[in-house]
Write a structure and sequence with these properties.
single chain, 116 residues, mainly alpha, two-stranded antiparallel sheet, 4 helices
């Protein structure tokens, strides 16, 4: 059964890792569409991950170019962008897939809780 997802997620919203850019609150983002993928199947998950990783690379390339070639933050940027996207999509199969590849996302998306 094909899972029809009507959502288009804007999943790669990044604030820059550089303190100078953070002060100006610049953000880089890219929309990754996945409504055409069956996320109940491993091949659909793998294709989504490939799209996420490609978008992360493009966004982080743009960020590095805008920050005058600061390529040393590029690997951290890509890792952060992928982890953020996976957490926002919040699909256990995707999180498991990334964990198997050696990435950080766990089986559940991180949750912030505040109590008084």
């Amino acid at each position: 059964m094909k899972l029809a997802t009507a959502l288009v997620a804007s999943i790669l919203s990044l604030t820059t890792l550089d303190a100078r850019a953070a002060a100006t609150d610049d953000a880089y983002s890219m929309t990754v569409q996945f409504a055409d993928l069956d996320l109940t199947r491993q091949d659909g998950i793998a294709r989504l991950y490939t799209r996420i990783k490609g978008a992360a690379r493009r966004v982080c390339d743009q960020q590095a170019n805008d920050q005058r070639g600061e390529k040393e933050t590029y690997p951290a940027c890509v890792k952060h962008a992928v982890a953020t996207a996976v957490a926002r999509i919040d699909r256990p199969m995707l999180s498991d897939y990334v964990a198997q590849l050696g990435g950080k996302p766990s089986k559940t998306a991180p949750v912030s809780v505040a109590a008084r």
